[in-house]
Specification:
Length: about 220
């Protein structure tokens, strides 16, 4: 299978034709460390930074810095259970804005069909702020596959397509229904390193005033 950068580039940019003029653009950068000992257990540690692009009345700005950890247990041939803890610091960059502590319970089911891997991810989250607690349910459908051959080897590219639905409730706000669509391009640099870029379109507050946000991601995933 011949790899074409131009085809992937068009694929990633195609959804941008749907964006409204009031869409906000942000960037997010992540470094992740994954440790999988010879057992059913696995551990993930992440550091993430989010920024806003300059607008007419606002300069480039850092939104937050966050630290995350997930402990995962392989519950079967295709499934896994995870518990996560995340701390998001926003007060450093926007004084007066509440920081967040997030607890996550996750079930993931992924199965290979030749070179394609289809995954289902279910998450329940509790998001703790200074003045409220938000409960959120999430479901993501994801398809990933190598772009060169039937399996992913060192130095080769892969892509992923994800669609996620989120529903949030709290005592102080009306329920929110959000939709996210993500396109990812990655490279398996070596057996211990993957690099990724992605574009994500978020349609937020579908039950209230609709908002649009576009995220551009970069990520380095390191296997320990």
């Amino acid at each position: 299978m011949n790899f074409s950068f131009s085809k992937v580039f068009v694929l990633i940019l195609l959804p941008f034709g749907l964006f409204a003029q009031d869409t906000r653009y942000l960037s997010q950068h992540e470094i992740a460390f994954n440790y999988s000992p010879p057992s059913r257990w696995g551990y993930n540690f992440e550091i993430t930074n989010r920024n806003t692009f300059p607008e007419e009345d606002k300069p480039y700005a850092v939104q937050h810095l966050e630290f995350s950890h997930f402990t995962t247990y392989e519950s079967g041939f295709y499934g896994s259970l995870s518990l996560g803890l995340r701390y998001r610091n926003r007060d450093w960059f926007e004084p007066g804005r509440s920081n967040e502590v997030r607890l996550t319970q996750q079930y993931n089911y992924a199965r290979n069909y030749n070179q394609y891997r289809l995954g289902h991810r279910f998450r329940i989250e509790q998001r703790f702020y200074d003045t409220e607690t938000v409960h959120r349910a999430r479901y993501r459908l994801n398809l990933d596959f190598p772009l060169q051959g039937l399996r992913l080897d060192d130095g080769e590219f892969y892509t992923a397509i994800g669609l996620e639905t989120l529903y949030s409730i709290s005592a102080l706000e009306k329920p929110e229904l959000n939709q996210r669509f993500t396109l990812t391009l990655g490279n398996q640099i070596s057996g211990t390193l993957k690099l990724q870029i992605a574009a994500e379109y978020r349609k937020e507050d579908l039950t209230l005033d609709q908002e649009n946000r576009v995220f551009f991601y970069t990520a380095a995933k390191i296997k320990l």
